[in-house]
Amino acid sequence: MKHFSEISLIATVSFIGELLHYLIPLPVPSSIYGLLLMLLLLVTHIIKLDHVKATADWLIGLMPVMFVGPTVGLITSYDSYKDILIPIVVISLATTVLTMAVSGLTTQGLIRLQTKEEKEERAEALEACEKEEQTDVK
Known about the structure:
Elements: H1 2-23, H2 30-43, H3 53-66, H4 68-76, H5 78-81, H6 85-137
């Protein structure tokens, strides 16, 4: 029953994304509207993560299966893209490396920022304790 309620909630948000796509005249896919709406609902705690986590994990587990059909389609239509295969592979590898580099640098920056903030908080707490000790001694 839990999966049914979770999938219903995810489907409802996706349906609202479809409605937004229909109502807003922008060239944005309805799935993006749905994802942004779900993100907004999760960040504002209107929907708690526990309300969708189990089904979301299950759907992520199914994701590789969803690539079987397109992969078979690519294999069967090899003749139509064999002339541009090398540029496609080069572009795919370059963008993969670029994405990994940007993701890694962004993560490192966020970790450094978080570490710096934690050090500052600890230093402030230590100063407060030292001041308190000094006032207690007097």
